[in-house]
Amino acid sequence: MLETLLRFARRIIPERVFRAAQPLYHFALALCAAVLYWFPSRRIKVVVVTGTKGKSSVVELTAAILEEAGFTVASISTIRFKIGKNEWRNLYKMTTPGRFFVQKFLHDAVRAKCSYAVIEMTSEAARQYRHAFIALDAVIFTNLAREHIESHGSYEKYRDAKLSLVRALEKSPKHPRFVVVNANDAEGWRFLDAKVEERIPYNLNKEEKPFETKLVGAFNQENILAAVSFAKSQGVSEEIARRAVAKVSLIPGRAEFIKEGQLFEVVVDYAHTPNSLEKLYEAFAGKKIIAVLGNTGGGRDVWKRPEMGRIADAHAEKVFLTNEDPYDEEPRAIADAMARGMARAPEIIMDRRAAIRAALQFANTLAKGGNQNNTVVLITGKGTDPYIMGANGDKEPWDDREVTREELKTLMQSFL
Question: What is the pTM of this model?
Answer without folding.
Answer: 0.92
